[in-house]
Specification:
The complex is a heterodimer.
Chain A: H1 2-12, E1 39-47, E2 58-63, E3 70-74, E4 80-86, E5 89-96, E6 103-104, E7 114-116, E8 121-122, E9 127-129, E10 133-140, E11 151-160, E12 163-173, E13 179-185, E14 188-195, E15 205-206, E16 208-209, E17 222-224, E18 229-236, E19 238-239, E20 243-251, E21 256-257, E22 260-266, E23 276-279, E24 285-291, E25 294-302, E26 314-321, E27 326-333, E28 337-346, E29 354-361, E30 367-374, E31 380-386, E32 389-397, E33 421-427, E34 430-431, E35 437-439, E36 445-453, E37 457-464, E38 475-480, E39 493-496, E40 502-508, E41 511-518, H2 529-536, E42 540-544, E43 549-551, E44 554-555, H3 560-565
Parallel strand pairs in A: 1-8, 1-9, 10-18, 20-27, 28-36, 37-43, 37-44
Antiparallel strand pairs in A: 1-4, 2-3, 2-5, 5-6, 5-7, 10-13, 11-12, 11-14, 14-16, 14-17, 15-19, 20-21, 20-24, 22-23, 22-25, 25-26, 28-31, 29-30, 29-32, 32-35, 33-34, 33-36, 37-40, 38-39, 38-41, 41-42
Chain B: H1 18-21, E1 26-34, E2 44-49, E3 56-60, E4 66-72, E5 75-82, E6 89-90, E7 101-103, E8 108-109, E9 114-116, E10 120-128, E11 138-147, E12 150-160, E13 166-172, E14 175-183, E15 185-186, E16 194-198, E17 211-213, E18 218-219, E19 224-226, E20 231-240, E21 245-246, E22 251-256, E23 264-269, E24 275-282, E25 284-293, E26 312-321, E27 329-333, E28 337-346, E29 354-361, E30 367-374, E31 380-386, E32 389-397, E33 410-416, E34 419-420, E35 426-428, E36 432-441, E37 445-453, E38 467-472, E39 484-488, E40 494-500, E41 503-510, H2 521-527, E42 532-536, E43 541-543, E44 546-548, H3 550-558
Parallel strand pairs in B: 1-8, 1-9, 10-18, 10-19, 15-23, 20-27, 28-36, 37-43, 37-44
Antiparallel strand pairs in B: 1-4, 2-3, 2-5, 5-6, 5-7, 10-13, 11-12, 11-14, 14-16, 14-17, 20-21, 20-24, 22-23, 22-25, 25-26, 28-31, 29-30, 29-32, 32-35, 33-34, 33-36, 37-40, 38-39, 38-41, 41-42
The chains are: A mainly beta, B mainly beta.
């Protein structure tokens, strides 16, 4: 046996790798090769709560310019590490250890890259890691029997704009005893969902939220702290009857059936719903089997369309599956709707061109359709081929950086056009300012009026640390004092203080607000009512009047960061 | 209760109208039991209509293990059964030796019974050299199979360790397994690779100890202590072979070659001077892919008449990486060689539409690369950009009329100039042209017969599920894929092989599991005297019955895996 192996290897070695040699002809265009002297990075990894070393933690530097170039080393039993022979450059650094939350290297309040010069000996590049947590338990069926191969997800609330969505932070599969272990999750508040993925030969189970709920309102959250294990979590999966859906796709332009590809996505999808695909036959008929009850968003992509047809190639429809097979579903495709409108200015000159962004989101709050257009000089606009669904409209003055609340102003205030806010949006004379535009399935013309109000307020001040010293690059967050307004994105503002701790928020809708220094980078956490309830206690009340400036100095609370982390897991 | 419902209206192709409803009255009935004979309730039974992947329905067996599908339109179906704690199984008709159920209109088929075997479990814990549990280690359950006479490993099941270092492999069919554990590393993970081991604690498969699990059994405590893999930092350069200049921004990918191993993978891009660095790579044999995005650019100073570079230059090499060359690797990307030739045919078949494939096969049997081309009407072919290496030559018909089987052929001669490369590997250099003259012959042979139990002529009991092996009598050809064939006898003992390459062979009926085992020299030496020598001529139809003797049974048990 072995001589044959040897024969193979002997033959294989004819493919040799030669040692490096100077190129045969020097190329005058080749870049100069200076001998770059490598840098060294040293530091320590400790546990954030006790200061104890994190033994054998792994530290990795990743080159910002080329993410596949990394330099790593393991710390010793003292948590001390050294990485040698690092190419000069800008890096992001992470430290990891099982049982701890991986963290990026950061100096102070921001995450500027670690800049390494040639031959630099960087030291005290230290990491402080929070302990991670475990959630474990069992998934059983209606008969209290274990369900193997069930997926369990630990989900945290995240916000996409003001819309709540699920962010999957960990997942695990159950074994033959129905047991699962979600590990290495950061401290925080989680919702658990159990589901059974399609494809296997098994009963159909509907996804369940712990302990036994279908909707967030009925679900029970699990709060967990670093180093803790929340054990014995029991989730029950219930069988659901599934149904078949058969029907046709009809093109309203021609009145005949048309071939299309159909994709069903659960409207209330949260990391586990069942989706279904079908391609119609060429005669436009389709059949889907084993569809679970629920409301679905149906994405239709028309395969053969006559050139020049006004029908939209991609169309979104909805479908409800309740308690019976559907034999005669008809999905209509056709031309999209048209939106005609104008923008009116109150208290200022209408900017010569405005950017209007239309965003549509899926059941999860994720944008799945976004389209922008600009207005004419007289403020009018027309948009065609709009797809059915719910659309948010956002209006920005084109090229005006200050309108994005996250960035500090970079242009001198005197040269900037006057800031504005959207006071009302009406569609066919109905106020949809805070509800968004509903584009119907049957093509329609929507007449939209957007009224801009230039009588905005300005908020300015200084941010300080808990001891009262100026705090640079701090995030300032401002929310409506009225809790009912907090789910509307326009009433939430964010800004960043500069190197001296000075911040400015412009374009504020006049009204009453709460403002504070926000200690984390979590975008949108404040839209979570539970997070806002905590923030309220550490915020300053402020009233903003039209065309006026309100001043307030803000001190970062030393207790707030940990309090936020009891709800919002760190990224 | 959902579970006592018997689903109606399942699996109709067109929506039923009143007039055709009468035709949809076929039914399938059966029972699910364990292999010990106990009825299994709440087993999931899935009925699937043939050739319609999305048209299936799943129901549960009742408290007596019984199930029924009603109101079916006629057609062909398959039935699959699963239950937690058991190995999935499909319904199989023993007489017909088929898993298809063909139903006529209104037919009621009973006795569609399925037996399920209880699954086995293997579990254990993995720690590292510091005594800490290893999270996300990969564990594999492997079986030994034979390819070309060499024992190789084949993955049957995978698991990963949790935060306590524990893994649990459930759903295992009972059998004999070898366990392998290790921890991957690649550029995107922030962890140290851990060297792969076979249980108990060895790096060599030859020293691994198998674990046998019976139905329903759990083998616990199959633990590992893994050490850091010996890793190296790879440093090298990529050179553009056309102008011998360093290639900037080339994509370099190293993939450890090991058919069921757990290894490392590294990707990076070369710097402006063509150099690259890859950290934490294990020693071993790698498939290296390099891609230089050229976009058809002309080298500076080239004349407008010079041939344009291809849009991308790709290279694939098998490279042995070890501490002696790890800091000094040169990867020269060339366009590769061109293999041209003409295929002559012997027999009543055409020389066009033949697919010529060059396959590079590693020592462990894995295919590390393959290049191919198709013949024109006159039998000429051209395969471009072939990477250097040693290749097997395969020729077969690429396309035939629908419904027809392609003609069976064998390669009777491969010549490179005056060199006779028939039944040998062809060496392809880094660049240039290699011209091959290939002759294929359509006069393949067939071999059929019946397998009987027992030595004596009077023993007339036929044996099904016996492997029949056809082994080359010529030791130099024995391991070549074209000269080894096997078939399994049907329940009535009959077997048939077609498309056989003529030559001198030995035939034997082997009561063991894997006929490939016979090519292991240790096994072959013992079995040879029990095999029957035959000479198979071109176009022959050899008919020969074979016997499974007590001596062969003893040998199969001795070598059983």
């Amino acid at each position: 046996m072995f001589f044959l192996l040897g024969l193979w290897l002997a033959l294989a070695q004819q493919v040799q790798v030669r040692p490096y040699q100077q190129p045969a002809r020097p190329n005058p265009n080749a870049p100069q090769q200076a001998d770059l002297k490598p840098a060294t990075v040293r530091g320590r990894v400790v546990a954030a709560d006790t200061g104890e070393p994190v033994r054998f933690a792994r530290v990795t530097l990743r080159l910002n310019a080329a993410a596949s170039t990394t330099f790593s080393a393991s710390a010793d039993a003292n948590g001390t590490y050294e990485i040698r022979n690092v190419d000069p450059g800008n890096y992001s650094g992470t430290a990891s250890k099982a049982g701890f939350v991986t963290r990026n290297f950061s100096r102070g309040n921001n995450f500027a890259p670690l800049q390494l010069a040639e031959a630099e000996e960087a030291k005290d590049i230290n990491f402080s890691l929070a302990r991670a947590a475990v959630i474990s338990g069992t998934v059983l069926d209606d008969r209290e029997e274990p369900v193997p191969h069930a997926h369990v997800f630990a989900m945290a609330r995240a916000y996409n704009g003001a819309q709540m969505t699920w962010q999957q932070r960990a997942q695990a599969q159950t074994d033959d005893r129905g047991q699962f272990r979600l590990h290495d999750i950061p401290a925080g508040r989680y919702y658990l969902q159990a589901s059974y993925m399609g494809g296997a030969i098994a009963p159909h189970y509907a996804p369940t939220l712990f302990p036994n709920a279908k909707r967030l309102a009925d679900a029970q959250s699990i709060k967990i702290t670093g180093g803790e294990e929340s054990a014995g979590i029991k989730i029950t999966l219930h069988e659901t009857t599934v149904y078949s859906v058969a029907g046709t796709v009809v093109d309203d332009t021609t009145g005949t059936a048309v071939a299309a590809n159909i994709n069903l996505q659960p409207e209330d999808y949260s990391a586990g719903g069942s989706s279904a695909f079908a391609n119609t036959k060429n005669d436009g008929t389709f059949r889907l089997s084993e569809v679970a009850p629920g409301r679905y968003r149906v994405f239709i992509n028309v395969r053969d369309m006559e050139p020049g047809s006004p029908t939209n190639r991609n169309v979104i429809r909805s479908l409800d599956v309740s308690d019976h097979d559907i034999d005669n579903a008809v999905f209509h495709v056709g031309p999209g709707s048209t939106m005609t409108g104008r923008v009116i200015a109150d208290g200022g000159d209408l900017p010569p061109s405005l950017q209007v962004q239309m965003t549509s989101r899926d059941g999860n709050g994720n944008p799945n359709y976004s389209r922008g257009f600009t207005t004419q000089a007289d403020g009018t606009f027309e948009v065609k081929d709009l797809n059915a669904g719910h659309v948010e409209l956002n209006v920005n003055s084109r090229g005006l950086i200050m309108m994005q609340p996250n960035n500090p102003p970079t242009v001198a205030p005197a040269t900037m056009p006057k800031p504005f806010y959207v006071r009302t949006i009406t569609v066919n004379n109905q106020d949809v300012t805070d509800t968004g535009v509903i584009v119907p399935e049957q093509a329609a013309t929507l007449e939209v009026t957007v009224t801009l109000d230039f009588h905005t307020g300005l908020v300015t001040g200084h941010t300080t640390d808990p001891s009262g010293n100026p705090l640079a690059n701090a995030t300032v967050a401002m929310i409506a004092r009225d809790p009912k307004k907090r789910s509307i994105a326009r009433y939430t503002n964010r800004s960043r203080s500069d190197a001296q701790g000075l911040f400015t928020i412009a374009g504020v809708i006049p009204g009453d607000y709460l403002i504070l220094v926000w200690p984390t980078d979590d975008r949108g956490a404040l839209f979570d009512p539970d997070v806002a309830a905590i923030a309220e206690k550490y915020a300053t009340s402020i009233s903003v009047s039209p065309d006026a400036t309100a001043s307030v100095d803000l001190r970062l609370s030393s207790e707030l960061p940990d309090l936020i982390r009891t709800l919002v897991p760190e990224p | 209760m959902i579970l006592s419902l018997i689903l109606a209206l399942a699996l109709q192709s067109p929506p039923a109208s009143r007039s055709t409803a009468a035709l949809n009255t076929a039914a399938i009935r059966g029972k699910v039991t364990s292999t010990e004979g106990a009825p299994l309730s709440y087993a999931s039974v899935q009925l699937r209509r043939a050739n319609q992947d999305r048209d299936h329905v799943t129901i549960a067996t009742d408290s007596r293990g019984q199930f029924e599908f009603r109101n079916l339109a006629p057609g062909t179906f398959s039935v699959n059964v699963a239950k937690p704690g058991f190995v999935n199984n499909a319904y199989r008709d023993a007489e017909e030796d088929s898993s298809e159920i063909k139903l006529a209109a209104g037919e009621v088929r009973s006795g569609v019974d399925v037996k399920l075997t209880r699954a086995a479990v293997i579990s254990g814990r993995i720690t590292d050299s510091n005594g800490d549990p290893v999270v996300d280690a990969q564990v594999r359950a492997i079986v030994k199979v034979y390819r070309e006479g060499r024992p190789q490993t084949q993955n049957r099941n995978n698991a990963q360790t949790n935060d306590r270092g524990e893994y649990r492999m459930f759903d295992l069919p009972p059998g004999r397994y070898y366990l392998q554990a290790g921890k991957w590393s690649n550029t995107w993970q922030n962890s140290v690779p851990l060297a792969t081991q076979f249980f108990p604690g060895t790096t060599r498969f030859e020293d691994a100890r198998s674990i046998t699990v019976k139905a329903g059994e759990e083998a616990g405590g199959v633990n590992f202590t893994l050490s850091d893999a010996i890793v190296m930092t790879l440093k090298g350069h990529v050179i553009n072979g056309e102008d011998n200049q360093p290639a900037a921004n080339a994509n370099v990918n190293f993939n450890l070659l090991n058919s069921s191993g757990i290894g490392t993978q590294g990707n990076t891009q070369t710097r402006a001077d063509g150099s690259f660095t890859l950290q934490d790579m294990m020693e071993g044999l790698y498939r290296v892919n390099v891609n230089i995005p050229n976009r058809g650019a002309m080298p500076p100073g080239a004349s407008p008449d010079a041939p344009r570079r291809p849009p991308n230059m790709n290279m694939m090499r098998i490279v042995e990486v070890n501490p002696s060359n790890a800091s000094n690797l040169t990867l020269t990307v060339t366009a590769g060689a061109t293999v041209t030739g003409k295929i002559a045919v012997d027999g009543d078949v055409t020389a066009k539409n033949l697919q010529v494939n060059l396959m590079a096969r590693q020592a462990d049997g894995t295919i590390s690369g393959s290049f191919g081309g198709r013949t024109d009407d006159d039998g000429t072919f051209k395969v471009q950009r072939v990477q250097p290496g040693l290749y097997e030559v395969n020729v077969y018909y690429a396309s035939v009329a629908p419904g027809a089987d392609p003609p069976r052929i064998f390669i009777s001669s491969v010549k490179h100039g005056t060199d006779d490369l028939t039944d040998r590997l062809v060496e392809i250099p880094e660049s240039g042209d290699v011209a091959l003259a290939i002759t294929v012959d359509a006069h393949t042979a067939s071999f059929s017969g019946k397998v009987f139990d027992g030595e004596a002529e009077g023993d007339t009991k036929p044996l099904g599920k016996i492997r029949v092996a056809l082994i080359s009598a010529d030791a130099k050809k024995r391991l070549l894929p074209n000269y080894f064939r096997s078939a399994t006898s049907a329940p009535n003992g009959t077997f048939k092989m077609t498309g056989i390459t003529p030559g001198d062979y030995l035939i034997v009926a082997w009561p063991g599991e894997d006929p490939g085992q016979l090519l292991d020299p240790d096994v072959f030496r013992m079995v040879e005297k029990h095999a029957m020598p035959v000479k198979i001529e071109r176009s022959a139809n050899l008919k020969q019955d074979l016997r499974v003797t007590p001596a062969l049974r003893t040998l199969a048990d001795t070598f059983s895996q």
